[in-house]
Amino acid sequence: MLHFLTDEHISPTISRELLKRIPGVKITALSQWRGGDLMGADDQRLLQEAEKDGLTLVTYDQRTIRPLLKDWVEQNVSHSGVIFVDEKTIRPNDFGSLVKALGALWKSETRSSWKNRVVFLRAGDN
Q1: 8, 19, 50, 82: which could join 55 in a potential S-S bond, CB 3.0 to 4.6 Å?
Q2: Considering its fold, how many domains does the chain have in total?
Q3: Each residue of 47-58: pLDDT tens digit?
């Protein structure tokens, strides 16, 4: 089942607003997960720990995470999924569009397998 983990660059407001819109949605802000212990952790550690808990990372960070995922594919390393948000399609301060797009993805893909899955979220996904 899909369980979002928003990274430290996504406001915890997104989690709160999505929960208001869709009761029962599984979403956790990095600052709240494990007491915030992984705030500032490197991408590899963050994805490894998220995989242990079955969490799918939601991030704007394509610059460092995409190359890491490419390396992992070549090394046969698993993860619990990554949802990339592009700041050109959903601005980081456009909370409403991000909440709508995540809500639509939740409704359509919550029961799908997210193992090693990568999705690029679009504003039109709402």
Answers
A1: 50
A2: 1
A3: 999 999 999 999
